[in-house]
Amino acid sequence: MPNPKLIRITTVPLSLQFLLKGQLAFMQQHFEVVAVSSGPQSELDEVGQREGVNTVLVPMTRAITPFQDLKVLWQLYRLFKKEQPHIIHTHTPKAGTVGMLAAWLAGVPLRFHTVAGLPLLEAVGTKRKLLNFVEKLTYRFSTSIYPNSKGLYEIIISEKYTKPEKLKVMGHGSSNGIDTGYFDPEKYSGIFKEEFKNEIGIPSKNFVFLFVGRLVKDKGINELVAVFIEFLKKHHNVSLLLVGPTEDNLDPLEETTKQQIYENPNIITTGFQNDVRPYFAISDCLVFPSYREGFPNVPLQAGAMGLPSIVTNINGCNEIVKHGHNGLIIPPKNAKAIEEAMVRMIKEKALTKKLASNARESIVSRFDQLTLWKLIKEEYDTQLRAAGINF
Question: Smaller CB count within 10 Å for the chain: N or C?
Answer without folding.
Answer: N
